Amino acid sequence: MESRMNAWTWGLLVLLGLIWGGSFFFARIAVHYVPPLTLVFLRLFLAALALHVYIAGRFDIYPILKARWREFLILGLINNALPHALIFFGQTRIGAGLAAILNATTPIWTVLIANYFTSDEKLSSAKIAGCLVGLAGTIVLIGPGISTGSEAPLWALLLPVLAAVSYGFAATYGKRFRDVPAPVTSAGQLTASSLIALPLSLLADRPWTLAIPPLDAILAILALALLSTAFGYILYFRIMAAAGATNASLVTLLVPPSAILLGVLFLGERLSAAEYAGMALIGFGLVILDGRAYRRLARTA
Questions:
Q1: Secondary structure of residue 40 in the 3-state scheme
Q2: What percent of the chain lies above the pLDDT cut of 70?
Q3: Gyration radius of the chain over CA positions
Q4: Which residues touch 90 (CB under 8 Å, ≥6 apart)?
Q5: How many CA atoms lie within 13 A of 43 on its CB side?
Q6: Is residue 283 in a domain?
């Protein structure tokens, strides 16, 4: 039975959409002063530290981490370290709003990957239609990057899409953690991904040679780690507990508008008509994948 959303859970969902949309905004500020791999490490390490403080040894976290550290390393790689690095590298050349729109294709890739690798989540006609519409929106967005005259190079447009593919694999792989308390899964994957990101940052960026970033970049890094990552996970699991995973997934539709709004208000970003059209197609594809709007229309009819 589908859990219902009340005014409180809708408010939490909108807040989460703003917070996760803010992650693209904060990253756009910070990546001008901190190299992407070092920014990935700072985000993951600070968020992991905050979640360990929040959990404070509850949920048998340390025995679980010890017993399943290999699985957490894989999840941390494909759900944190790799996609965050891809997005941050992309955001060195594209704005917060466009990166968020491209990354919003995550549910589409999740459906396609789950169809191939699982036996209980096969494609239906509605899912196929949603994927096709969403992929059409993606093509509209990255198409101009193929032209040499485009302001955003093709590689920068493709990286957030590849991050979405990585998130899709993580969603399928993450099903094996159903028996693990959600806060432990969050802390475990962030801890593991911090260990992955640390040597990459040290080797590639030599962070001890970097200049101290200005205050606005430091605040953006803290907000990215503590607000958008640590608190975002806590808020997401609270929504999921109150209203179910399907309702919590609606946040995917709220992240791009939030990132666009913040980019327009504070960074002076503007989207073209084609980019808005791509966002509309992706959003429509996600609505089709969700399926609830169609079911309600069918019940009304």
A1: helix
A2: 93
A3: 19
A4: 99, 102, 155, 156, 157, 158, 159, 160, 163
A5: 34
A6: yes
pLDDT band with cut points at 50, 70 and 90 for residue 1? very low
pTM of the model: 0.89
Q: Please choose, from the candidates 92, 121, 90, the residue with its C-alpha nearest in 3D space to the C-alpha of residue 107.
A: 121
Structural domain includes residue 2: no
The predicted pLDDT at position 40 comes to 97
Q: Is 272 helix (H, G, I), strand (E, B) or coil?
A: coil
Report the distance separating Cα 301 and Cα 296, nearest Å: 9
Model confidence over 214-242: pLDDT tens digits?
Answer: 999 999 999 999 999 999 989 988 887 77
Find tokens 């917060």 and name the residue. Answer: 96
DSSP state of 78: I
Specify the number of domains making up the chain. 1
Task: State which residues form the domain around 234.
Answer: 7-300
Residue 115 counted as domain residue: yes
9: Cβ–Cβ under 8 A, 6 or more apart, which residues? 239, 242, 243, 247
**238 located within any domain:** yes
